[in-house]
Amino acid sequence: LSVFGVLVLSLLAMLVVATFLWNGLVLATILRVRSFHRVPHNLVASMAVSDVMVAALVMPLSLVHELSGRRWRLGRSLCQVWISFDVLCCTASIWNVTAIALDRYWSITRHLEYTLRARRRISNIMIALTWALSAFISLAPLLFGWGETYSEDSEECQVSREPSYTIFSTFGAFYLPLCVVLFVYWKIYKAAKFRIGSRKSNSITPITPGA
Length: 211
Known about the structure:
elongated, two-stranded antiparallel ribbon, single chain, 2 strands, about 75% helix, mainly alpha, Rhopdopsin 7-helix transmembrane proteins
């Protein structure tokens, strides 16, 4: 390896350690502090779990992959595990962001109906759906033979390039949550703008005729 290559790999290794420690600290804080055992901290904890899994299970093997000249020499089974965890954790992280956005939207626009009990129940449902959907997207190639992730001849290990799976996975893991987040924050912006306008109109004191 060149000096530049060693420098890049060193920085990547530091990034792996920093990612693991930071998200591990977030997760440990939420678990240890009792006041954090509520919404939205459970959603943040779910996102921290996905990021810790990326740092512990995905990024180290990515480093090995880079050190091997982007050739996979660890066998088919470990390749499938690596790709599955990569897709699982990244998809879960994106959907956790979406769940946090939805929680904020409902707490702002439906604060009367969105009670603490309802908020806790809905957040737990969103966390369960997030991981279930992420697991389905990541395991679909293995469950249904939806393309191949490993090539022994070329020593390649990558996400299935089957066109139908590519459309399915990108829509479910990126475009759908992106549309939800954009829509939710647009609605939050409109609600905030309406509240600011209402406060301004209420703060105007009418001038009496005798003044």
